[in-house]
Amino acid sequence: MNTYLSDDSISTLHNMDIKLSSMERAKKWPGAEYIGDDILLVESPSQAPFPHNGRQMTFNLVALCTKGHASYTVDTVERHVSAGEVLIIGEGHFVDNFAPSADLDGLCMMVSEDFFSETISNVADFSSFLLFSLTNPVVPLSEHDQALFSNYFQLIRDKIGDTQSYYRRNVVSALILAMLYDMGNVIYQGIQADEKLKGRAYSIFTKFIQLVEQHHRKERRVSWYAGELNITPKYLSETIKGVSLITPNEWIDRYVILEMRLLLKRSDKTIKEIAKELDFPNQSFMGKFFKEHTGISPSAYRKM
Predict the structure, then answer these.
(1) Which residues contact 53 (CB under 8 A, 6 or more apart)?
(2) What angle do CA 137, 139, 140 make, to 5 degrees?
(3) How far apart are CA 241 and CA 204, in angstroms?
(4) Which terminus of the chain has fewer Cβ atoms in its 10 Å neighbourhood, N or C?
(5) The predicted structure's pLDDT at residue 289
(6) How confident is the model over 124-152, as pLDDT tens digits?
(7) Cα(304)–Cα(300) distance, rounded to whole angstroms?
(8) Element (H, E) at 237
(9) How far is CA 294 from CA 47, 133, 212, 300, in A?
(10) Chain centroid offset of residue 265 CA
């Protein structure tokens, strides 16, 4: 089964009247635990926000199927998940045709892009999650790893429910980071074992992401990355768009914004120093870039 999009699939998505899927509906379900629009946990994914009518995801979704099965499409590509498998759908992808079995059950976690960005320690963590979710949208887990996922899920759920805790959000963020690291062995084994990574399109995409991870602080020209990969900028753009639905420029900007968020939240550097480190012409230019992508100024974000 192809895991990257054909030209017809991309054309189909562009012609759709795409609606957005948010956490708001899930907040009303019995047993849902959440912190604002940052993170939400719910059991029984047959009730989770897999829309019967197509929706574009506005959050990252991780769900473990514990019983039954379901079929669905992501970016027009059909997927199937069964008991003992975990599925991952990244923010921005188009989900449709969700069809659960009558006995479907499981654990579902939704995390906003902002909260995920705040949670991870560095851009390498983001790259691992990105490559894993794109190349391994459904992965079987061993009984040990299913128990590990379930234990983290229940602990995070309990901490979200502890509304009297002053550090509730911080504790939940730390637990999610620990969960990502603890499941890292599954991620890397999945990447290494995935035959699809041997395809040319995914090979180019993987190498491109690795280059962006290493050089986004100083280099933002698509032509430069194409040169490093010994292909034309046009071919690079077509390939990256076909694999991920977004352009090389959008990937570069995503990494730059992620780096800015990490520096603003986790360093004592001034905004002027951050602008210099990330090779912006000046602080004002960086401020406009950040606000354009996040809707908020760097100084306001730092105070959040």
Answers:
(1) 19, 96
(2) 160
(3) 11
(4) N
(5) 95
(6) 767 666 666 666 678 888 899 999 999 99
(7) 7
(8) helix 233-244
(9) 31, 23, 20, 11
(10) 20
